[in-house]
Amino acid sequence: MPTAPGTGSTSRKRGLVPRPGRSSARPRPPGEGGRGCGAVAGAVAVTDQSAIDGVHAPDWESTSRPSKTNPSAPDSAAETSETADRLSKRTRWWKRKNELVDQFIEEHGAAHRPISVVESTTLREDAARGDNDRYRSKTWSTVLREFLSWYNDYRWAHLRFRDPDGDLVRAPMLNSHQPAYGDIYYAKLKALERQVLQRFENPHVVMLTLTGSTRNGNGGPRCPADHLRDVVDPFSKNVRPALHRSLDVEQWEYAKVLEHHTSGYGHLHVAVFVDGEVTEEDFRPAIDAHLKHCDIAHRDAHDYYHPDNEKRPISVNRIDPDVDPNADDVEAVGNLGSYIAEYIGSHGKELFDRSITELAFRSACWATGTQRVTFSPGATELIDSEIPTDDDSDVVEIPARYKRGVTVEDVQEAVSDPDKSVNDHLEGGPEGWSLDGIGTVDEDGESRHDIENSGVSYVQIDGSEHVDPPNPQPPDRPTVKTSDTTLTDY
Predict the structure, then answer these.
(1) Same domain, 341 and 399
(2) 451 or 285, which is more confident
(3) 5 occurs within a structural domain
(4) CA–CA separation, 20 vs 450, rounded Å?
(5) pLDDT at residue 351 tops 70
(6) What spatial distance separates the first Cα and last Cα of the chain, rounded to whole Å?
(7) Residue 327: burial class (beta carbons within 10 Å; 0-12, 13-18, 19+)
């Protein structure tokens, strides 16, 4: 649905780069800035290094480009089976992208809704339309198309490193939607599990589920980014302080996980790690705070008195690595990493093989730069304190990474400031490795993009809130279900 005219807006740029695989001057990101969904230009794990740089790697420098003196030469790169296969794969993924968008339009009633209509909402420039510093959100289906196109570009992009001798080494360029990134999340969760078991005397994990109505005041579907913000925003200002007040323990940390409903809209899981005995009652004030301060939350979806424990918004379990995973009568979690990873998504699956509602949800997160998994500062410290001890790993790590203590803001500032360099924040150790740029491959061979121009362009949109009026819900707490009985009627 098109949006109506609104007030003025401003744009905010965070670095410029052509989309990998294109030569357009339009700002396009090779990654996702620093808000959680972008390229990993630090330590890059490569399980099959030879596929990129080795005896089985393509001839990147010579045979990948057609002859300039005789473009129709039989042995030109455009004629090779390698190039034909690459183009065939591009065509297949391009067609698959279009099929997924068509499926979403056909099946989802909110496909033509804008991603957001709230004044000054910050979106990726790819998710907005407009000119002269006045922008509107694109529709959900259009944003899904942009997101899948962006993801496809990563299939042909890689990071370029220089070793101490100046030789070029290529490594995959990751983003948080790739199957391999699930391993990174899982590794962090396992590191957190080990630290919790080591430092907590009586470890428990509590899962809270917070959600909100997906219908607006007109009875239609909400704009997905505005709905997600309504659900998530009360946590920091209201829910977390409620936890501080209600938990009588020495230490607790948390991880926030955004997950999609079958509708494609999002809801929030909060995994709370507690050192001490706790009960469900200890966490009811947090649910009450969400109901009070999240205007679209209703008590029926947060009923901690529900007779079915599976439908309650609070789940309490102790952490016990020795518990029998096949036991049904034990309220304990044996594998904390797997327990939380179930809420994160379909790890190990190709993105295009996932449900259309998950793809739609991810596109909304991508458009707004929203992290799907975040940890409390204390949990992050516990994870960072982990030192890998597996010397038998067959993973090859490129020894170029961000220096310890470098923040996302540091990198973004280096990207935007012509007098600064991203390389200033990299360390290669005694080997002297350095980051050389980003490479993309197409039918003409490999092209190099300057890493200084990496980043994401964001804009702020005009408001059209009347298109998607909120549907306020009563802030009432859940109530105990009771019924009147007599000696003859019970």
Answers:
(1) no
(2) 285
(3) no
(4) 11
(5) yes
(6) 53
(7) exposed
Domain that holds residue 195: 181-347
Report the pLDDT value the prediction gives residue 453, as an integer from 0 to 100: 55
Mean pLDDT for 317-332 is 68
Same domain, 32 and 160: yes
Which letter does DSSP use for residue 103 in this model? H
Q: Does residue 206 sit in the same domain as residue 262?
A: yes
Does residue 388 form part of some domain?
no
- What is the reported pLDDT for 75? 47
Q: Is 24 in the same domain as 142?
A: yes
**3-state SS class at 443:** coil
Residue 362 lies in a domain: no
How many C-beta neighbours within 10 Å does residue 66 have?
19
Q: Are both 169 and 187 inside the same structural domain? A: no
Asked whether residue 372 is domain-assigned, the answer is no
Residue 291's CB is within 10 A of a number of other CB atoms, namely: 24
User: What 3 state SS string does 58-97 have?
Assistant: CCCCCCCCCCCCCCCCCCCHHHCHHHHHHHHHHHHHHHHH
pLDDT in tens, 158-169: 888 887 788 888
User: What are the tens digits of pLDDT across the range 15-37?
Assistant: 333 444 333 333 333 333 333 34
The encoded tokens of residue 209 equal 């589920």
> Is the domain of 186 the same as that of 172?
no
Q: What pLDDT, on the 0 to 100 scale, is given for residue 315?
A: 93
**What count of Cα atoms within 13 Å lies in the side-chain half-sphere of residue 476?**
8
Span 64-101, pLDDT tens digits: 333 333 334 444 544 466 666 666 888 899 999 999 99
Pairing status of strand 314-319 against strand 128-131: unpaired
Task: For 418-452, write each residue's pLDDT tens digit.
Answer: 556 555 655 554 356 777 888 887 767 788 887 65
Q: Which of 332, 347, 362 is the last residue of a domain?
A: 347
Answer yes or no: do 88 and 198 share one domain: no
CA 329 to centroid of chain Cα atoms = 35
Burial track 454-489 (b if 16+ CB lie within 10 A, e otherwise): bbbbbbbbbbbbebbebbebebebbeeeeeeeeeee
Number of domains in the chain: 2
Indicate the pTM of the whole model.
Answer: 0.76
Looking at the structure, tell me whether residues 165 and 187 fall in a common domain: no
